[in-house]
């Protein structure tokens, strides 16, 4: 791989580093070799846990993994010796799907998450948080073209159990536009000034694949925008944001991932501008980790035909393929199901099943055929089983026309996938990437509002996938939820809801297999299993150190594990000063 590294310091004391909570001295050294020992080293190779005594790293790659005695015999005289002090070392985490730039955006705007990630519990507290943020961050509002912005509200967790309306947000401002993004990323609320600037009124029709919600018994917009109506609005807001601000947002996003032990990350529904921004950051040696971009095929087809995709990194950046979105979110009740929602959204009858993002099946087939013909890996967003049916049909059609090949298509989210659909994924070599964190964040909501007990217990069916001999990956879809690697692991293992209810007990998997979905199997998804995902000679020294071993502590303690340090190709890029 062609790689150009962001310069990082390593530290040594008498040719030795002691990880006492990853605290180090500050003497820079020239040695490019490190020897890790003194704690469990989990290789992630094989179907069951395998440990090594020592790991030797040189020039960014793993030189040796095995006994401490052999490692010491192989090591250079100037090797930096790192004592893990009983902390665990394993391959760093690989982000199977998320939106890094929007994670950075969340760091800059008002935090409207409910607990445990924020403090918003009702519309009153939401308005208070926005008003406080507005007073404290006038410079951000100015750089965002005068917009007051927030992210992460969730109607499922608001006491009112509804979306804030334009009238509610007028309590923040009547002369400045306000937009707040739903935690799913598929809906938003705006105030009346924003509706005016976006030119949305009672005569504005619903766009294809989206909805402008209306006041009861009228065509007057109430401020809530769904799917394509939202995406169009976001595009108009961001088009004039200065490049320097976009770079700042991107770098804040990267920081959030590194702190959670990720060294390969994804821009999961990119446009041309965002993709070129990441490329530019790479060329400026500003990417400390690997960034893989997947432009939206419906909006970036010409761009992709010009630039294509690559399996090789250039300054830690590459275009991995394309993204296509086929429906919305189950928690927002916009995912496309074959059976009705348990409780339909306001204004919909009991037959409501959500809707397709692209209603024309032939159009979807055409996009997948183009991707297969061009050799682009496809990531398909499909939460509802009707959307999954649509994707499966398109992949079947494209495979018949373009022939068999190692394409590793990925079904993102796969929330309500049926057993018969899992069988078809196996036959078509489609990898399911599950969002098991739904069990915690929206498990109770799915039981009571969207799916009912039986269907809710089957979301993200990881154990069933394994029984059908399918590997799977896990993702957090940040900023839908924060990019917490340990919360991901906890949800995949325990499947507990906010109310501590175990949702789908039979779909729980072991901590080791859950870790496989975040390392080894995620590397395979990216076509990078020869370079990443396990600790083996010749692979990249992408490493994470945790303060406790997920395989040996009580499973309910997993979410409390802390990331102590993150290494990219042997270089320390994050350490937790508190551990």
TrEMBL record:
GO terms for molecular function: hydrolase activity, acting on carbon-nitrogen (but not peptide) bonds. It holds the Pfam family Amidohydro_3. Residues 80-574 form the Amidohydrolase domain. Gene3D superfamilies: 3.10.310.70, Metal-dependent hydrolases, Urease, subunit C, domain 1. SUPFAM superfamilies: Composite domain of metallo-dependent hydrolases (SSF51338), Metallo-dependent hydrolases (SSF51556). PANTHER family: IMIDAZOLONEPROPIONASE (PTHR22642), PROTEIN LONG AFTER FAR-RED 3 (PTHR22642:SF2). This is Amidohydrolase.
């Amino acid at each position: 791989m062609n790689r150009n590294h962001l310069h990082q310091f390593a530290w040594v004391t008498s040719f030795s580093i002691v990880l006492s909570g990853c605290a180090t001295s500050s003497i820079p050294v020239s040695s490019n070799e490190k020897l890790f020992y003194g704690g469990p080293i989990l290789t992630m190779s094989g179907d069951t846990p395998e440990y090594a005594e020592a790991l030797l790293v040189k020039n960014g790659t793993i030189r040796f993994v095995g006994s401490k005695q052999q490692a010491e015999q192989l090591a250079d005289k100037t090797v930096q010796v790192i004592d893990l002090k009983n902390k665990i070392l394993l391959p760093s985490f690989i982000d199977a799907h998320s939106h890094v730039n929007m994670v950075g955006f969340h760091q800059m705007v008002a935090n409207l998450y409910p607990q445990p990630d924020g403090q918003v519990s009702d519309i009153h507290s939401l308005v208070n948080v926005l008003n406080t943020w507005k007073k404290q961050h006038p410079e951000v509002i100015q750089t965002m073209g005068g917009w007051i912005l927030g992210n992460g509200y969730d109607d499922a967790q608001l006491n009112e159990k509804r979306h804030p309306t334009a009238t509610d947000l007028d309590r923040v401002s009547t002369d400045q536009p306000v937009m707040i993004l739903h935690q799913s990323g598929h809906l938003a609320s705006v105030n009346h000034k924003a509706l005016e600037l976006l030119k949305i009124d009672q005569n504005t029709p619903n766009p294809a694949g989206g909805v402008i919600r209306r006041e009861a018994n009228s065509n007057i917009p109430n401020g809530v925008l769904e799917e394509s109506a939202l995406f169009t609005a976001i595009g108009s807001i961001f088009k004039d944001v200065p490049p320097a601000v976009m770079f700042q947002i991107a770098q804040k996003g990267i920081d959030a991932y590194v702190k959670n032990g990720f060294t390969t990350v994804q821009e999961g529904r990119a446009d041309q501008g965002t993709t070129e921004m990441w490329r530019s950051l790479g060329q400026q040696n500003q990417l400390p980790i690997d960034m893989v971009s997947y432009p939206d095929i419906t909006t970036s087809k010409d761009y992709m035909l010009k630039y294509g995709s690559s399996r090789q990194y250039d300054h830690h950046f590459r275009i991995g393929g394309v993204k296509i979105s086929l429906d919305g979110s189950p928690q927002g009740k916009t995912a496309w199901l074959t059976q009705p929602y348990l409780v339909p959204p306001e204004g919909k009858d009991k037959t409501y099943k959500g809707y397709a993002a692209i209603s024309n099946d032939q159009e979807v087939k055409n996009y997948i055929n183009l991707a297969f013909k061009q050799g682009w890996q496809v990531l398909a967003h499909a939460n509802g089983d009707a959307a999954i049916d649509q994707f499966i049909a398109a992949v079947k059609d494209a495979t018949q026309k373009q022939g068999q090949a190692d394409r590793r298509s990925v079904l993102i989210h796969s929330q309500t996938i049926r057993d018969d659909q899992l069988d078809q994924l196996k036959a078509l070599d489609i990898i399911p990437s599950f969002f098991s964190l739904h069990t915690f964040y929206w498990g109770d909501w799915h039981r009571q509002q969207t799916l009912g007990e039986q269907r809710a217990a089957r979301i993200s069916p990881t154990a069933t996938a394994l029984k059908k001999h399918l590997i799977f990956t896990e993702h957090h879809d940040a900023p839908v939820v924060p990019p917490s690697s340990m919360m991901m692991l906890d949800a995949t293992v325990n499947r507990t809801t906010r109310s501590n209810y175990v949702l789908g007990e039979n779909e729980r998997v072991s901590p080791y297999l859950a870790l496989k979905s975040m390392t080894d199997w995620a590397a395979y998804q990216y076509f990078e299993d020869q370079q990443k995902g396990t600790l083996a000679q010749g692979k990249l020294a992408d490493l994470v150190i945790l303060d406790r071993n997920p395989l040996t502590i009580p499973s309910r303690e997993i979410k409390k594990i802390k990331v102590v340090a993150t290494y990219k190709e042997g270089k320390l890029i994050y350490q937790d000063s508190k551990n």
